[in-house]
Design brief:
- By secondary structure, this protein is α/β, with parallel strands linked by helices.
- β5 (70-76) and β6 (79-84) form a beta hairpin.
- A 5-stranded parallel β-sheet has the order 2-7-1-8-9, sandwiched between helices.
- α1 (18-28) packs across α7.
- The protein is globular.
- Helices cover 45% and strands 20% of the residues.
- It starts with 6 loop residues before the first strand and ends with a helix.
- The chain binds guanosine-5'-monophosphate.
- Guanosine-5'-monophosphate is lined by residues 14, 37, 41, 72-74, 76, 81-83, 101-103, 105-106.
Length: 211
């Protein structure tokens, strides 16, 4: 039976190191596809259109919403962020697990829409470390950092909705942990519907002497 891909939502406070983690997941394992989101925020230094994000205007984003071209979208710190539909559908159909690195409002929409989605929340080891990483990144103004820390406090309230909480202290360790959680998730009854149905049918046929 062909392996079915699942949606893997990865959330975490801004500065938790999700971006680096996701790049490593893609490098180390070949069953993952990373969705590239669309956003109305400006590119940071070193970011490329089509690689980190598709950077678009507010008008273009709203047009995409009207065309029903997004799996989910949300507003975060004054900007729109959304997941384009086409890539997700193609990759899932090809059997890949599609990683969506998105914030909590989007994560909850995915949970509602896709019963088999797995929700992972990445945390830094401490709150002080989070601030250190945000400041150390050097890409945001003090005001933006303060806004993101306030937002982290709000998002912390929603961590209970996730399936697993992962601490990103050591990159290699954390990558392995995420991978093993995703592998295990594939074997839960919720995500093995077809396998279970096939077995029940075959057993039924055996008992009736049809095979
Ligand atoms: P950043 O501006 O730091 O790249 O991203 C800000 C937040 O938006 C992060 O929490 C990131 O996970 C989230 N985000 C990125 N893409 C999407 C998306 O397509 N949908 C939603 N809902 N959130 C996203």
């Amino acid at each position: 039976m062909k392996r079915k891909g699942i949606l893997v939502v990865v959330s975490g406070f801004s500065g938790a190191g999700k971006g680096t983690l996701m790049k490593k997941m893609i490098q180390d394992y070949d069953n993952y596809a990373l969705s590239v989101s669309m956003t109305t925020r400006s590119p940071r230094e070193g970011e490329e259109n089509g690689r980190e994000y598709f950077f678009v205007s507010k008008e273009e984003f709203e047009e995409k919403i009207r065309q029903d071209g997004l799996v989910e979208y949300a507003s975060y710190c004054d900007h729109y962020y959304g997941t384009p539909k086409e890539y997700v559908e193609t990759q899932l159909a090809a059997g890949k697990d599609v990683i969506l690195e998105i914030e909590i409002q989007g994560a909850l929409k995915i949970k509602e829409k896709f019963q088999t989605a797995l929700l992972l929340f990445v945390m830094p080891p401490t709150a002080a470390e989070l601030k250190r990483r945000l400041v150390g990144r050097g890409t945001e103004t003090e005001e933006v950092i303060a806004k993101r820390l306030r937002r982290a406090g709000e998002e912390a309230q929603g961590m209970e909705h996730y399936d697993y909480i992962v601490i990103n202290d050591d990159l290699d360790e954390c990558t392995k942990e995420l991978h093993s959680m995703i592998c295990a998730a594939h074997h839960t009854p919720r995500r093995s519907g077809e396998l279970m149905e096939n077995m029940k049918r075959e057993l039924d046929q055996l008992v009736k002497g049809e095979k």
